[in-house]
Amino acid sequence: MTTTTRLNQQNLTNLPDSVERPTYDRSGLTAGIVHIGVGGFHRSHEAFYTDEFLEKSGSRDWGICGVGLREGDGKIAEVLKSQDYLYTLIIKHPDGSIQTRVIGSIIDFMLGCDDPAGVIARMAKPTTKIVSLTITEGGYNFDPATGAFDFRNPEVRHDLKNPDHPKTVFGFLTAALRKRRDEGLPPFTIQSCDNIEHNGDMTRNMLIAFAGKADPELGAWIENEVSFPNAMVDRITPVTTPQDVKSLEEDFGVKDEWPVTCEPFCQWVIEDNFSDGRPQWETVGAQFVENVTPYETMKLRLLNAGHSVLGLLGSIHGHATINDCIADPLFETYLRRFMEVEAGPVLDPVEGIDLGRYKASLIERFGNPAIKDSLARICLESSAKIPKFVLPTIRENIARKGSTEFAALVLAAWCYYSDKGTDRNGNKLELVDAMKSELHQAAARTSKDKLAFLKFRPVFGDLAENKAFAAEYTGMVEELYTQSDIARQMQALLFGRE
Ligand code: CS2
Questions:
Q1: Are 333 and 272 part of one and the same domain?
Q2: Which of 311, 440, 461, 496 has its CA at a distance of 20 to 30 angstroms from the CA of residue 432?
Q3: Residue 280 C-alpha to ligand 1 middle, in angstroms?
Q4: 354 and 316 belong to one structural domain
């Protein structure tokens, strides 16, 4: 029987040999990075790269202080604290082998909702050089119809009135930057790690809008002084399951309350635009480039869009995971065709990347049977994802008279999902989305007006006004609502009607 070791700093040396662990001295590290949004993705990606960097370089300056802004972050705060901020990354290879590494780069954690002044002070400390963010695609607070900062958000209104007790990320960044400016310190770099095209520019535009309203002079200072590098981030990171926790304990002897699982693949392409220094992440596999846009677009429109294609179609068909979809030849072929016929043709070439090979590698990564990435995770917050992942491909194909039908069926499936909330076998599908009720209401009008869902402007803009696309979509919704058989419709698109 394997003996079990509770994960913490003191026990690091007692872990079984099969578990890799940090050998650098964590005790005197300085948190040069404050990171807001310590979910699975941050822990499998930036914290992973930073851990490798600390291991390799011996640097003392680039530890990470995690920050959660909401009450809901209390659990991760507690778990990390009880484990001296250590956690295990469980890397699952397609052949079934598993690599485990304890990550040591996070050295502290603070809760903004409990101690706003403390978090602001931490961000304003001269040793903080970078504030990085994973606040999800939906966290940027822009009005989807206009792209402008949404001042109607009650939390934003709260932050404008209470600059010292903010709730939103924009309130915290503004308060900390004000403090630095007033103290004559250089600003930190703000580094977005979310799946949004031009994520740095987006963060910049939103923050300048907010800060400029709160204090126009400060807004101008931020505009002139702060760097917001754009980046493409990539590593598939499913939700940790109780089984993952159990297997780590049983098979590796590590008792970790909240490990993270991920695939072996990992990519980070960053614009080298940091105002106050940065870790040399390029020594551990990150890539620094002048212009990240082609990489971002490729990833969002092939990988993330590919996930959404499988997620929405697969959910109403009754599949549970991305690898279940890839194991089903109909879904695999459909994804390949979507990439070949619709997403691929509207992408610019990417220097140093063979797009054919990139697409093939996605099928392989999605097919990794060990990952079991749930379609429920993929379908979370689709209203923030589809406009970034899928709609640009549709719009560009409309403009150049290209094919749109593979993507149109995905929108029809999303309508069905939002309306019925069940798969074809009647099993419940949860709609988890900030726009849940609006999506449901729009979709529920489909029986009266086949275009009702597509007319929902906050998500689709004016897409329903394009006659040809509207007709294509209407035909698909009609058939889906009468037959509830998405597989048959996918088959028809791929091979024609029999
Ligand atoms: C996924 C992403 O949320 C989603 O819909 O497509 O989380 C994806 O797994 C990551 O971006 C991979 O890098």
A1: no
A2: 461
A3: 25
A4: yes
User: Encoding tokens for residue 28?
Assistant: 């005197």
Please state the domain count of the chain. Answer: 2
Please give the structure tokens belonging to residue 57: 């370089």
Kindly list the averaged pLDDT for each block of 10 residues, start to end, along the chain of length 498.
Answer: 88 96 96 98 98 97 98 97 98 98 98 97 98 94 88 97 97 98 98 96 98 97 98 98 97 97 98 96 97 96 98 98 98 98 96 94 98 97 96 98 98 98 93 97 97 96 97 98 96 90
The atom number, within ligand 1, closest to the CA of 303 reads 6
Which pLDDT value is given to residue 498? 66
Amino acid at 161: K
Query: Atom 6 of ligand 1 has which residue's CA nearest to it?
Result: 304
Give 203 Cα–ligand 1 centroid separation in angstroms.
19
Distance between alpha carbon 258 and the CA centroid of its chain, in Å? 19
Please state the separation of Cα 42 from the chain's center in Å: 9
Closest Cα to atom 5 of ligand 1 = 378
For atom 2 of ligand 1, which residue has the closest CA?
304
Domain range spanning residue 456?
Answer: 293-495
Query: Are 268 and 376 members of one domain?
Result: no
Residue type at 12 in one-letter notation: L
Q: Domain with 482 in it: what CATH number?
A: 1.10.1040.10
pTM: 0.96
Together in a domain, 305 and 277: no
Structure tokens at 355: 């797009």
Q: Nearest residue CA, atom 10 of ligand 1?
A: 236
Ligand 1, atom 3: nearest CA belongs to which residue? 378
Query: In the structure, which protein residues have their CB atom closer than 6 angstroms to any atom of ligand 1?
Result: 195, 234-236, 304, 307, 378, 385
